[in-house]
Design a protein that fits this description.
Blueprint: H1 5-13, H2 15-31, E1 37-38, H3 50-60, H4 77-91, E2 100-103, H5 105-117, E3 123-128, H6 133-140, E4 144-149, H7 158-164, E5 169-175, H8 187-204, E6 209-213, H9 229-232, E7 236-241, E8 254-258, H10 265-278, H11 286-294, H12 302-319, E9 331-335, H13 341-349, E10 353-354, E11 356-357, E12 366-370, H14 375-393
Parallel strand pairs: 1-10, 3-4, 3-5, 5-6, 6-7
Antiparallel strand pairs: 2-8, 7-8, 9-12, 11-12
The structure holds pyridoxal-5'-phosphate.
Pyridoxal-5'-phosphate (PLP) binds at residues 42, 105-107, 131, 175, 179, 213, 215, 241, 243, 249, 254.
Length: 394
């Protein structure tokens, strides 16, 4: 075999994603694009804010010598300074420039964190359902993912987390607002988790990291705020990006924010910077760093996502579907009327509806609807969702 057996196996494991793409392409060929309702991808469809285009034009015409060259691996100091101030204000903490490391999106940031903290065979606890790429990011750096169940409303279950904690636990990785459930963890859940990790850390004699993956932090509804892990737990790291809040997913820009009170924070920061370099990212894209610093505090129109959520939730509820109302992000995790979610997803395809089986997120018996699509698509898809459920029952 010419490629590694591990990569070969990973390709096979993630082949359902490819199959969805293929099925989508086939349906579009057969029925035309406007008659296929594709809710399978978390690719934000809203345009970036207007100011993005103005600043981008200005940055693109800057001919200052060296402006596109290498820089410190952690990113431009002034950009990191601006972000540190912003994070400090939002989280009510005191971070300095050195606590911010610019990354190639949240995905790049998570890989940098995992490479930095994991020894071979150490464990990262992840509540499920979860963003499935985590299993690759952890495995990439020799770690083992340990999945734990959440409660029926997808809130954190302290019992399952406590049972999973061991000598080998290096970190707990949470994601709020959550992909695929849209759940936002409460202040109380974060506090209980922090208490649990503090207790476990003293028992095993070394601190367990709490890592929060927060690319959807600003996409929340009903005036919710995502509680800060930095406020609640010393050994904490936030990984985030501008992929969703500014609709810049293709531009690969984000950052890691390290709690200033982490034990060995100098080592941690030095490790993150080295990992960013030796994983081959070298540094986050220069022009995007300058751009996001100027756009701090700006974001896409969340009310548009909320309107879509309301439309979708109302339509699905009245059609008889069962789900927990999403509190943030742009995903709705719906209960499949049949335990075999893949079978129901295939049934939906007969109605030209593309969604992703919950099985792919460690949440069998559900399917994920990504509503980062136009209201028109949602409106025209709803009668089909209804028909699909009726014909399934009948
Ligand atoms: C939960 C979660 N984490 C990380 C990412 C990766 O984000 P980025 O595109 O910023 O790397 C995604 C992308 O969909 C996501 O849903």
């Amino acid at each position: 075999m010419s490629i590694s057996s591990k990569v070969k196996e990973s390709i096979e494991r993630s082949s359902w994603i490819r199959k969805m793409f293929e099925e989508g392409a086939r349906l579009i060929q057969e029925h035309g694009e406007s008659n296929v309702f594709d809710f399978s991808l978390g690719n934000p469809d809203l345009d970036p804010p207007d100011s993005f285009y103005d600043i981008m034009a200005e940055l693109a015409s800057d001919k200052t010598n060296g402006i596109h060259g290498y820089m410190p691996n952690a990113g431009f100091p002034d950009v990191r300074e601006t972000i540190a101030k912003r994070v400090s204000a939002v989280h009510d903490v005191h971070l300095q420039q050195e606590h911010i490391i610019m990354s190639c999106g949240a995905a790049g940031g998570l890989n940098v964190v995992m490479k930095t903290i994991l020894n071979e065979g150490e464990e990262v606890i992840v509540p499920r359902p979860f963003f499935v790429e985590y299993s690759f990011y952890i495995d990439n750096h020799g770690g083992n993912i340990v999945l734990v169940d959440t409660k029926s409303d997808f809130s954190l279950n302290m019992d399952t987390i406590e049972r999973a904690l061991s000598e080998k636990t290096k970190a707990v990785l949470i994601n709020s607002p959550n992909n695929p459930t849209g759940r936002v963890y409460s202040e109380q859940e974060i506090r209980s988790l922090a208490d649990l990790l503090n207790r476990h850390s003293s028992e095993i004699g070394h601190p367990v990291y709490l890592i929060s993956d927060e690319p959807y932090r600003e996409i929340v509804y009903e005036g919710r705020a995502v509680p800060s892990i930095l406020k609640q737990y010393h050994q904490s790291i936030i990984v985030t990006s501008y992929s969703k809040k500014l609709s810049l997913a293709g531009e690969r820009i984000g950052y890691i924010a390290v709690n200033s009170s982490c034990v060995d924070s100098d080592d941690l920061i030095a490790g993150l910077i080295l990992s960013n370099r030796i994983l081959g990212f070298v540094n986050a894209p220069a022009i995007m760093q300058r751009l996001v610093a100027r756009l701090e505090g700006t974001m896409v129109a969340v009310d548009v996502y909320k309107k879509r959520r309301d439309l979708l939730a109302e339509g699905l509820r009245s059609a008889g579907y069962d789900f927990a109302e999403p509190q943030g992000a742009f995903y709705l995790f719906c209960k499949s009327p049949e335990e075999d979610d893949v079978a129901f997803v295939r049934h939906l395809q007969k109605y030209n509806i593309l969604v992703v089986p919950g099985k792919g997120f460690g949440g069998p018996g559900y399917f994920r609807i990504a509503y980062c699509v136009s209201e028109d698509i949602i409106e025209r898809a709803l009668p089909r969702f209804r028909e699909a459920l009726e014909s399934w029952q009948g």
